[in-house]
Model the fold of this input.
Amino acid sequence: MSKRNLKAWEKAKIVGTLIASIAIPISVTLIGYWHTSDFKEKEFGLHYIELAVQILKDKPQNHNENIRSWAIDIINAYSTVKLSDDTKSELLDYIIISDSLDGNIKSSAQLMEEVSSLKKQWKQKNKAVDNLMEEMHHMAKQSNNAVK
Done:
């Protein structure tokens, strides 16, 4: 390789390193921001749903029809599975959400604790698989050496 090509490669390496040193921190910052923003939005939605459930516990009456309608809209807005029109109508006019449902609603802290526990279990299982793969690789090497 000529000195000219070598210098061009060295310059490209320097420019590439410079670009990477700028792009990587910016990328990490943006990804962190988007992740945090998404998490906060979901947590915010959970608080709205909790408020809506509290509202729907009251007995349906003429004076609370608008607030019950709002609560139903909130649940529908933050839910991945949307309520059917019949279900909305039943919640508005008839169904009173029982206090026994409260025990089944988990706080975001409880959900995060469960996610953390699942991640820990996943890491442990991945580590066990990695160890097994390493052992199998070592055994294959020993087998190849024995054949030679």
